[in-house]
Please model this.
Amino acid sequence: MTLPTLRIGIDLGGTKIEALALASDGTELARRRIATPSHYDHTLGLLRGLVSALEGDSAAKIGALQRAEVGVGIPGTLSPTTGLVKNANSAWLNGRPFDQDLGRVLGRPIRVANDANCFVLSEATDGAGAGADTVFGIIIGTGVGGGTVVHGRVLEGRQRIGGEWGHNPLPWPKDSERPGPECVCGKRGCLETFVSGPGFASDHEFVTGATLSTYEIAEQVADGQPDACATYERYVDRLARGLATVVNVLDPDVVVLGGGMSNLPDLPDDVEHALPPFVFTDDCSTRVVRNVHGDASGVRGAAWLWPDEHDPRT
Model:
């Protein structure tokens, strides 16, 4: 009997590590979650333990112990020049050959990708973008990230920064939007400063003087409060302008929204309707949809970093 391919995905977050085992058809077999340590060697040891535990948990489901293919999503990326982690907000990962070290600890090759790329891969494989040739996925939360999947493969780019649309300037800025807020990258007016969760709250405070959380503003939008509704309308307009530049360059079939801000109830439909005036076509049919797998998209996408060799898309 041929056993299904066993994949393990690991989402190495700043505060927690989530790991799951998937069968080749996407069925979840096992899941584990632990706190993230702040020490590199300790992390490698914990990941070895997680993989071993998930292989054991899966064996109980499929009736045989199987060596898994392992993929890891990290809050950064591997430099194509040095092979070392860069741009990770978990600073202790930076400058380390993480894929090589973890592969040595596990005794097998592993695959590593940026966590936003894992998110969009998950949604393109069996989520909101399933069946589409080109999927652009965004994470709009505390920060802004993104990624692209074409024919089932992550498009990382030469510098492996593909999808970092949040650090482009807000397109077609109004006078009131210039020069824009300061960004963590050192520039001003980046999309991240406008369409992240903190950017949403800061804009509301700047215009109204009221200091509210994104959740409180969303509640007021639901109640029809005029100031909150105006903040939401500005947010939709800015998000549509930002995504229009992606559509003009990449022309994806679908844009999948993820992150905390994607939970605003009407956001996908409102952005989809606001998008066409900014896109260089007379018939914009790009779909904007909410993710299917929610917080699990990152860890599922890490598991899908190993494609099915029999899948004609890969």
The longest strand covers residues 28-35.
